[in-house]
Amino acid sequence: MTAFLPVIIVFILYFSGIPIAFALFGSTLVYFGFIDNSSPVSLLLQKFVTSTQSFPLLAIPFFVMAGSIMNYSGISRKLLLFADVLTGHTRGGLAQSNVLLSMLMGGVSGSANADAAMESKMLVPEMEKRGYGKAFSTAITAASSAVTPVIPPGINLIVYALIASCSVGRMFAAGYLPGFVMTAALMITVHIISKKRGFLPVRDRRPTVKEVAVQFMDSLWALLFPFGIILGLRIGLFTPSEAGAVAVLYCIIIGKFVYKELKKEHIIPVFKETVYGSSSVVLIIVAASVFGYYLNWERIPQTMTTWLLGITQNKYVMLMIFNVLLLIAGMFLEGGAVLIILTPLLAPVAVGLGVDVIHFGLICIVNIMIGGLTPPFGSMMFTCCSITGCKLEEFTKEALPFMLALIITLLAITYIPQITLVLPNLLYGAN
């Protein structure tokens, strides 16, 4: 029982309000300091330091900085204009643009909370003016932001690849189709609700081919960003970390010399957002690495594998158990914490049953994104509600149809692995 005590301590500390990084490190320190004295504490500190010396970790601050620069350079606005041209003539046009913008922002911010915050400020006030209602506007903004981290270069894709020791490039390629499927499910839901409530289109008519082409060319540099990253990784032009650096340089050039909206006064805010955004993620990853040292020391993943396989060895039943477990965990824990804590425990079981490690990664990430919409601790829910002033009860009621659409999508991603694996296998070859 003492072997599992640090896991219990993590949850106690987390629910006490301690940040997840300190909860992970503190519980591990308790274990090696007071429970198991066979390993000196100095080795734990050494593990903490050496885990920071991971080259792929450099990708995180670079992509965070790229996303920040793009928000200041006007690229987000260009993407919104393109989304508006494509969907503005449909029922609930502005809500449809909201969803499509989140898909396009996947290659820009890579963060659900960053996308949720930006769209809450940019779109929700305009949606309210056009009669959508604060709760509905906030709900679709939060729900659509769940798509953002699934499409490259989402930070969670990098985090999972580091934890599961798999290819970042394959994870990036795996995110596209699930992200498109999630987008389609949300847009269908918006259409059904808009038809029932009589939400009008933003535009009076369907755009002409010329209008779409003109806006496409105007937004081309923003749209090329994620595909350029994938192509560069595929042909070996750069590593994931170098891709982040290239992304920053690309954003600066486009923002300064093409769209000409990036100014000198934006430098300090960009650096501040980069430090705040990346330091918390990197600290959690490092603390998780230390916690993983304890898990491996006590062979917790192997014990968990044996226990779960004792319940069932049916891959499809086990995947359903994982989905329920991850969704419940997402209701009470912050999404990143769920990914950090449960991936080392569940991934070996899934792989042992023949589930591709990349496929399982997308299952985990989509699960925690849905968890980000749910009470009591959904991060996107809190981000959007705090900015728009929407009450949590009203938000929950309006968000239910979108949660259902995303859960149906999750089941499709879970039981049709080709949705996830077709692009990685096409670009990198089957495992």
Going by helix content, strand content and strand pairing, the class is: mainly alpha
- Please compute the radius of gyration using only Cα atoms: 22 Å
Largest sheet geometry: none
What number is the mean pLDDT?
83
Low-confidence stretches: none
Task: Let me know the number of strands.
Answer: 0
**Could you tell me the strand content as a percent range?**
under 5%
State the order of secondary-structure elements, H for helix, E for strand. HHHHHHHHHHHHHHHHHHHHHH
User: How far apart lie the N and C ends?
Assistant: 38 Å
Q: Into which percent range does the helicity of residues fall?
A: over 70%
Secondary structure tally, helices: 22
Overall shape: it is: globular
